[in-house]
């Protein structure tokens, strides 16, 4: 299991999410805790790079951009966006 470490800016972004986005964001966090490699590479030219992005929401309205630190078993959340 990976430890989730949110950036201060990401905390503010999560707090600004609408109520209807929160269940989908919680599901995204559950994925990140178990299998952060399931997100797509942030940079397509570095498919195995540690920076990744996970799409969430019923209609894919949200994204979480994060950095995986394998040795520490941590996922650092850098950016949370909701376009819904």
What is the C-alpha radius of gyration, as a whole number of Å? 12 Å
Specify the biggest β-sheet.
5 strands, mixed
Strand content: 25-35%
What is the CATH C-level name?
Alpha Beta
What's the end-to-end separation, in Å? 30 Å
Strand-pairing-aware structural class: alpha+beta
* Principal-axis shape: globular
What is the H/E string?
A: EHHEEEE
Could you name the ranges where pLDDT drops below 50 across 5 or more consecutive residues? none
Number of strands: 5
User: Mean pLDDT score, rounded?
Assistant: 96
Q: Helicity level, as a percent range?
A: 25-40%
Number of structurally distinct domains: 1
CATH architecture: 2-Layer Sandwich
CATH-assigned homologous superfamily:
RelE-like
What do we call the CATH topology?
YaeB-like fold
Number of helices: 2
Strand adjacency order, main sheet = 1-5-4-3-2
Characterization of this structure:
The protein is an alpha+beta fold and 84 residues long. The chain has one domain (3-82): 2-Layer Sandwich (YaeB-like fold). The protein is built from two helices and five strands. A five-stranded mixed beta sheet has the order 1-5-4-3-2. Strand 4 (62-69) and strand 5 (74-82) form a beta hairpin. The longest helix is centred in the middle third of the chain and has 13 residues, at 22-34. It is globular. The model has no long low-confidence stretch (mean pLDDT 96).
């Amino acid at each position: 299991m990976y430890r989730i470490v949110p950036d201060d800016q990401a905390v503010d972004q999560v707090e600004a999410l609408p109520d209807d986005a929160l269940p989908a964001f919680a599901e995204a966090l559950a994925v990140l805790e178990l299998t952060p490699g399931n997100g797509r590479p942030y940079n397509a030219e570095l498919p195995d790079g540690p920076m990744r992005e996970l799409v969430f929401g019923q209609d894919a309205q949200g994204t979480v951009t994060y950095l995986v630190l394998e040795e520490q078993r941590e996922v650092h959340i850098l950016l949370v966006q909701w376009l819904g």
